[in-house]
Amino acid sequence: MLYLYIIPLTIAAFVCTTTACTQSTPGAASSVPGKPLASAPAESVCDRNLIAPQDVNGLLDQPVAKIKNIPGDPQSCEFSTAGFSSLTISVRPGHDMAAVGMYTSGKMDQYEKSVPLAGVGDAAVRSLSLNRIVARKGDLLCEITGRAW
Q1: What is the CA radius of gyration of the chain?
Q2: Spatial separation of the C-alpha atoms in residues 117 and 135, rounded to whole Å
Q3: Which end of the chain has fewer beta carbons closer than 10 Å to its terminal beta carbon, N or C?
Q4: The pTM is what?
């Protein structure tokens, strides 16, 4: 039964890496060694429409009814249905290999075991313990997390 949740999350990661991860991110942080990180854009991922409800609709059991900013995290957006289903998608510029590399190197295994996920962005992993996919395209990190059940 878990596969019913993994397939939509995999599709969400694909959507993230083909929509938000391919769009221009003005004000994106630099990951070039020796260069200071730029500040993130003032508008949230939700406000900038980097990922639209139609991108997410097919991933949930009902149409997206609400889009919500995550307080304190302008790089994340929650898409929820009128029922219980929701996905939180985070688009984090300037994180390149660091986050995905923590998973693929095994450094995260004591906290969250994962497996590589082929065909999503430049590199991706699927958590075995949490309802989450972490994907990278270029220096843009996308995290897709489904509501726990």
Answers
A1: 15
A2: 9
A3: N
A4: 0.69
Q: Which two tokens stand for residue 1?
A: 């039964």
- Segments of the chain with pLDDT less than 50: 1-11, 14, 21-40
For residue 70, the one-letter residue type is I
Distance CA 51, CA 35 (A): 28
- Of 85, 83, 19, residue with least CA distance to 54: 19
16-to-27, 77, 105, 149 alpha-carbon distances in Å: 19, 12, 23, 23
Contact 92, 139 (CB under 8 A): no
- Are 139 and 93 in contact by the 8 Å Cβ rule? The answer is yes
- Residue 55 in tokens: 């991108």
**Contact at 8 Å (CB) between 93 and 28?**
yes
Give the C-alpha separation, 50 to 21, whole Å. Answer: 9
| Chain CA centroid to CA 103, Å | 15
In this predicted structure, what is the pLDDT of residue 16?
Answer: 55
pLDDT per position as a tens digit, 20-49: 544 444 444 333 344 344 444 568 889 998
The CA distance from 96 to 72, in Å, is: 22
